[in-house]
Amino acid sequence: IINIYYLLIALKNFIFKNKNNHNLKSIYLQIYLLSFNPKLIIGNNVDLRIFRIKKLLPDVTCICYQFGYVTKSTAKKLYKNSKFNCDYFLAFHKNDIRIFKSYIKSQFIVTGSIKNNFTSKIYKKRKYITFISEYKKIYLKNMKFKKIEYIKYIVKCLEEFCKKNNYKLLIALRSNRNDKNLSRKDEINFYKNLLKINFSTNINQNPYRVAEKSIVCVGIHSNLCYELLSRDEKVLFINLNKSLYPPVYQIRKKKLIFIEKKSKTEIFEKLNKLINLSGTSWKKYSKNLNKIYFD
Asked: Which of 44, 110, 192, 239 places its Cα 20 to 30 Å from the Cα of 268?
């Protein structure tokens, strides 16, 4: 929604007082934000708005929080050759900071995932196996994406495992997250076309809650997988594309929880190992993982 009053002021300043050659949109944003007399502004590192605001309002304290995991290639694609500034940067992990420092000047603090830390843990487990969905809107228009082949292979394996071992298959929908702006109906239909057995989605439920009900969670490279791992949940990564994972956490080296080839036998073996691993043994194993911080 555009505020007409501030737009007129911005237009006037754009024409007569634009010493820094800002565009009209930036001048409007600056005037609009200053009307609140802000002392502190918070934003994430992906949409880049917090860096833009810091440039427009250098005297206001700006805090940036890490939105999702980062790799050298994703950082290069997002930030290109630009340099950004903010006062404080809240990072998942100390290894992430090494990547961000190439593009962002800030005081870095390791906090883990802010979204993850805001959701308390639950401990009531059921006989569920959860697949962490990586559905995208474009998949309905073009079924030839390589990622769809990976998803189809994995969920079909999980379908067979659940049927043989009397487990319920849960799918943690991406459309349950407000930031994804996806149709829940379309995502459910996408999986209905892949699976023969009934599966549950726990519609409208927080994805952390869906996953925490499960004995084991299975994913490809979703950020939620790493967040769940930080919460001491059992997570199996089946990543058939070696470039699609953040090497900073070194999960690929952990053979118990990482698979990188099509092998139904290996998937079943590792699911059974994780299922049969006691809570105490898993926590001992989990302590040696290079996880993101959780509090």
From this structure: 192
